[in-house]
Amino acid sequence: MKSFPSRAIVREVGLRDGLQSIRTILPTARKCEWIRRAYEAGQREIEVGSFVPARLMPQLADTAELVAYAKGLPGLVVSVLVPNLKGAERALEVGAHALLVPLSASHAHSLANLRRTPDEVIAEIARIRSARDVSGSRTRIEVGVSTAFGCTIQGEVPQQEVLRCMQAALDAGADQVGLADTVGYAGPGAVRALFEKARSIAGQALACAHFHDTRGLALANVHAALETGIERFDASLGGIGGCPHAPGASGNASSEDLVFMLEEMGLQTGIDIERLLALRAQLPAWLPDETLHGALARAGLPKTSATRMSAPLASEIQ
Amino acid sequence: MKSFPSRAIVREVGLRDGLQSIRTILPTARKCEWIRRAYEAGQREIEVGSFVPARLMPQLADTAELVAYAKGLPGLVVSVLVPNLKGAERALEVGAHALLVPLSASHAHSLANLRRTPDEVIAEIARIRSARDVSGSRTRIEVGVSTAFGCTIQGEVPQQEVLRCMQAALDAGADQVGLADTVGYAGPGAVRALFEKARSIAGQALACAHFHDTRGLALANVHAALETGIERFDASLGGIGGCPHAPGASGNASSEDLVFMLEEMGLQTGIDIERLLALRAQLPAWLPDETLHGALARAGLPKTSATRMSAPLASEIQ
Prior knowledge:
The structure is a homodimer. By secondary structure, the first copy, chain A, is of the alpha/beta class. Chain A is built from 14 helices and eight strands.
């Protein structure tokens, strides 16, 4: 059997993917507290928001302030989502460490989500790359190929089209690419098949997997992706996010359950699960009207966990 | 990477492991309807109840009737749980196809659950084997080594003790053994490690994995176990069961989510997921006071599932 990597990165996307899709607008001070405590728990990559027009997404209107705050935490990789060049220019201005461009492999979803075809988005990625290079910025450009396992609008998304989009994103100048199961259609079979092929094309530039837990398979999908060499996963504290097409369904893989699984498997995440759970315990008060997910927050750590989890990184935090 | 088996068996244990731990007493006619519809959906192994004193577990008092009913369905493997020789004698009398003896590897759990030490249970297994052989019955004797990944009472359960119990069960005359994560402590790391070792000891006699979804890892654990060659899994419709030590936590892996995952991976289960979901849709009416689990029942099948799932077995059902 294939051996697993020795480390894994859990990138927190709850502040972006989670908060964008729920009604509650979390105050900026709260978001800063979330970022600080996630950092203190050991998280070293956080997607703090999106540069989209505030009238479209008032929940994320404070993204520039959050980038500024988060950049004050040494060693934290601060990323933002940008839908287009204009958003990318703002990300470059504020000096985000990484900007993430979603590229939907589903033609129908791309039009519905960004009012652009996949090829128009690819052209925009090339413009974003030019803007980055001209600015002299070192901001990493990451493209998340979304609806990579199917689409609630168009249904099947051919694997060939997903891989074509990924290759085109790299050709247009993306530094890294990832594959996202935007609507929670993926299972371990499709994950293994697609990530293996994507790996053979993109090599180490394939650097992220993004799973939604809509059908309860997010962690099994992570398990399958690990075996194809993926070591970096998006996740959302409390599994927030949901999906408008699947009432009651979870959003992203929940960060705390994912960290628990990875550490149980002997993969170092650098994250202190008890501190992360203490932060998770704040969410019901912060988001009182939202449905939260995640099994660990309900069931607690096993009695046996102390001996299995890696040591806290207290010395790194100060 | 290791290839997966081409088929897998999902044994329904909701009527036993599920119903024993909830308050509602389902009428016998309802249980028969459940068994019939599970069978029509393609399930070919069902644990219909336990032979325990009715005063201790009134929910399962109709087990003999259920065995008689279920034996009328051609090709269905009908199993019952028995805690001791007396229960086994009843299972032999009614001609169950298989009887399952739980053997807790946790000394503390064994005393709490059966008022016997593991070694006393092992001696009882030998007596059950003798009784079976004397009776001329072909009832299969299966031992489920429980608390194999830890125990809520004693905490750690040494792997060595789990393997010793398993070997002793085989030596005492069990035809098959399985490993059960009774309290939902297992993760894919421990699953892989323990099942690999158990396989090297028991070979093909190691024939079942039983996971609880208490910490959201049941399906990831199945994924890990598949890679060690396990092809048979216990599961419970609607994930019923729960755990008194983990309020709000799920019980067994939910049958419908498990079938969905296995079929997505290309493993033939023989189960028509749409029929199984139609049966699952009855549970809220049958068990109105119970918390039900499972993501698929909330989110529905993906738009893309028709082309991915295997064909219904209508021709086998008549």
